[in-house]
Amino acid sequence: MALSQRTLEHLLEAEGSIRSALAVAARSEKPLVITQISKLLYDIEHMKEFENLMDTVEEQLSKD
Question: Where are the domains of the chain?
Answer without folding.
Answer: 5-63
